[in-house]
């Protein structure tokens, strides 16, 4: 079985500061997974398969997980992963595990926000949909 550390370098372009990359951070000891950015390349199908296995392995050994999703845009492979992840997380919740998901959408990205609201309806665990506000100056909030 591959791990995220083994496959992520092959799916991301090093040495280029590209805001369109998908960034995945799994801090297992803190029960925390963060996925944010652009999820559009076909190679991510492999990444998501491995990530789903890592989530399942984590839940077999730990009592909780918190996942932050902060997508800018995603493709059908991402949606497929999300549905499988929700199924896995619902099963974990039924087994008494603590599951928290934060879906973070940028203020004007209504498509991502609405997808979060739709996914929330499928969840038997805490699924929070939040809008991330971006302004030029904090005084404009």
List keywords for this structure.
141 residues, alpha/beta, 5-stranded mixed beta sheet, 4 helices, 5 strands, 40% helix, globular, disordered C terminus
Tell me what you see in this structure.
- The chain has 141 residues and is of the alpha/beta class.
- The protein has helices at 4-11, 44-61, 76-94, 110-120; strands at 22-27, 32-39, 64-74, 98-106, 126-132.
- Helix 1 (4-11) packs antiparallel against helix 2 (44-61) and helix 2 runs parallel beside helix 3.
- The protein starts with a helix and ends in a 9-residue tail after the last strand.
- Mean pLDDT is 86; it is low at 9-17 and 135-141.
In brief:
The protein is an alpha/beta fold and 141 residues long.
Instruction: List the quaternary state of the chains.
Output: single chain
DSSP strand tally = 5
Low-confidence stretches: 9-17, 135-141
What gross morphology would you assign? globular
Going by helix content, strand content and strand pairing, the class is alpha/beta
Q: Could you report the average pLDDT, rounded to the nearest whole number?
A: 86
Element order, helices and strands?
Answer: HEEHEHEHE
Portion of residues in beta strands equals 25-35%
How are strands sequenced across the largest beta sheet? 1-2-3-4-5
Q: How big is the Rg?
A: 15 Å
Number of helices: 4
The largest sheet, given as strand count, sense and whether it forms a barrel, is:
5 strands, mixed
The percentage helix is 25-40%
The first-to-last residue Cα distance is 47 Å
């Amino acid at each position: 079985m591959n791990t995220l550390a083994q496959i992520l370098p092959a799916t991301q372009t090093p040495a280029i500061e590209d805001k369109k990359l998908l960034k995945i951070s799994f801090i297992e000891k803190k029960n925390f997974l963060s996925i944010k950015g652009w999820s559009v390349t076909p190679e991510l199908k492999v990444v998501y398969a491995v990530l789903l296995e890592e989530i399942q392995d984590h839940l077999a050994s730990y009592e909780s997980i918190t996942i932050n999703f902060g997508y800018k845009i995603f493709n059908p492979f991402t949606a497929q992963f999300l549905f499988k992840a929700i199924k896995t997380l619902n099963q974990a919740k039924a087994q008494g595990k603590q599951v928290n998901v934060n879906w973070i959408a940028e203020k004007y990205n209504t498509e991502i926000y609405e997808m979060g609201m739709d996914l929330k309806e499928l969840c038997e665990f805490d699924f929070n949909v939040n809008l991330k506000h971006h302004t030029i100056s904090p005084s404009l909030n």
